[in-house]
Task: structure prediction
Amino acid sequence: MMQYQRQVSIRKIFSPIKINKLEIKNRILMPAMHMNYTGSKGEINDKFTAFYEERAKGGCGLIIIGGANFTKTSGCMPNMVNMMMEENIPNIEHFADVMHKAGATCAIQLLHAGRYGYWGQPYAPSPVKSGIKTGATDLPQELTIEQIQEIIEDYAQAALIMKNAGIDACEICGNTGYLPAQFISKFTNRRTDKYGGKEITDRMTFNIELLQRMREVVGPDYPIIYRMPADDLLPDSTTYKDYAIIAPYLVEAGADMLHCAGGFHESRVPQLTMGVPHGFSAVLAGYIKKAVSVPVALSHRIHDVETMEHILIAGLVDMIGMGRPLICDPDLPNKLEAGQLDEIRWCVACNNCFDCVFQAQPVACFQNVRAGKELKYNITPSKSPKKVIVIGGGPGGMEAARVLKLRGHEVILFEKENYLGGELFMAGRPPGREELMRAVNYLINQMVKLKVDVRMNTEATVETILDENPDAVVMATGSSPIIPPIPGIDGKNVVRAEDVLLDKVDVGDEIVVIGGGATGTETALYLARLNTLPAESAMYLVQHEVIPFEDAFEKWRYGKKITVLDMLPKFGSNIGQTTRWTILQDLAYRGVKLIPNATVEEITESEVKYSVGDERKSIPCDTVVVAVGVKPNNALYEELKDKIKDVRLIGDAKSPRKGIEALEEGFKAALRIE
Ligand SMILES: Cc1cc2nc3c(=O)[nH]c(=O)nc-3n(C[C@H](O)[C@H](O)[C@H](O)COP(=O)(O)OP(=O)(O)OC[C@H]3O[C@@H](n4cnc5c(N)ncnc54)[C@H](O)[C@@H]3O)c2cc1C
Ligand SMILES: Cc1cc2nc3c(=O)[nH]c(=O)nc-3n(C[C@H](O)[C@H](O)[C@H](O)COP(=O)(O)O)c2cc1C
Ligand code: SF4
Result:
């Protein structure tokens, strides 16, 4: 029955592979991710090990942890896995043991951040200012020859420590513009000594000496993985063609697998957000694969089974790295192998996890509340199953219903609209944000599978709830838009962002959006793309010479004329840090005008009047979209809370925030209803 669900071949994903002498049971690896679960000095602890144990049990072939701190100039945060502390060695040994018992192999990634140093003074091949400020200063100090040699020796000794501790392989973090990539790049390496030079092969000295010394110390059989960009994605830096040239040198010097990942941190090419196409860099990695005879792996946005299998079958690479997908669903490999495709909770690349790292917080997943809390939360059967009513079919309500039902409760879910997903359904409408619908669809699918009694088009009232005589109620009624008291706000030309995103209203060609938070900017993106030419059609029309390329490109890029006004100086301030810049970049590319510090004073039939400081201005427009925020929808809760013993208010109905809080509160409410 389950096999019947399998719609794509998974022949290749579950075939074994060898890195040097290490046999790995399948082609799935979990790349290194600093999760902030370790102790304050980088100790591997129970929380950390439990997180990875679940992924190992879930069927992942190779789990790579880190990046790990191994040398004093690394610039690592103090809580990154610590290879320098004797007391951590038994923890590393225990970790390896747990991974092996759970059926996985494991590796540790060694990270030297170079000019991206997160902690203290950064050190780099040359004092080239970092494009992003990650630590104390963006200006690195040039490494001396002695310091370089010390780093190389520390890499090698750290690899030996992990070998002796039972870790199956070691990885060098040469990706994302960290130290090894900084030595290779002509942009960041301006040295004139033996570690620099005009030719790319001159700038390989550091990497070659490093791999050779590591090989010398760990012996011929111990697998060394070299993680590298497929392309730096940075002007004047190393391209995929350059990497194809240098790849054989890396292998000759000692690398047993090349693991392609992202370009430099400061690249303006988005690589992690949900607008990035699945498997976008596979073709680039394919050039590297062609240049070497050792296995090549690739990670970054390989977030569906079709892309995974296609990349492997096409022979572009040999292993697939899945980072965030395994945070989101630890059992992904097992579900895939069992053909339970619609049971997989796919990562939606919302980057909440990545934002956590930049805020020095333990990684939390938007969808998987248990990630990092495996020892804290378990979905156990209820000892006395109850009748529970959930009001609202947004993410909070559906997550509560899912967990309640898994625990054996009887669950009725009321949803007043004719669709499920609540605000998240709207959030998934703008171009590049569609993947949010995967989160909604997973939950809808669970409602069906678990046979939750979902009553659509049914607005819950005090009477309907009391009629059901429930033991408990979870109130997940979300929020409603704020309508600001601006003269003209009731005009026919004024619409709400929510109605635009749901296509409930018609809009003109010149539009002003009032409010530049997530809803305003993303609605602007939706509108800007509303009447553009889809890429596939554009290519088709160009191929058949119906439209010249320039015209097709213009029609693909630009649509309606949009201006966004906000009282604040900053747009999209409630969008996560690692996503926000991509949305602002996209808005600029599509010609959307953003006017900050603007107070709207009046809306007329044909214009919006506003002021910036003392200056009064106006913009002609035919439609005005209001997106100035929302308020909690909690009136029903207030009416009901004294009439039923157990009423729990969750998500935006409690206080408007984001989907992650709604899901977490839904999950917790469901665990707490005994
Ligand atoms: C454009 C946009 C982009 C966003 N982007 C993101 C993002 O990238 N990441 C993120 O985490 N969050 C994002 N959010 C916010 C996120 O969607 C919300 O925080 C989340 O949906 C709140 O979930 P909830 O379940 O609490 O409420 P909602 O999603 O609002 O769901 C409430 C549900 O209750 C129903 N309801 C209300 N009253 C009743 C009643 N009496 N009877 C029956 N049903 C009722 C409503 O119809 C609705 O379906 C975005 C929101 C918008 C609008
Ligand atoms: C929370 C988080 C922490 C990360 N930390 C590291 C790291 O320490 N070293 C590294 O090489 N890559 C790191 N990455 C990048 C991932 O290894 C991976 O390349 C990236 O998430 C893209 O793959 P994915 O789309 O499968 O998630 C991190 C990513 C995330 C989300
Ligand atoms: S937080 Fe978002 S990006 Fe990170 S794993 Fe979860 S769903 Fe994926």
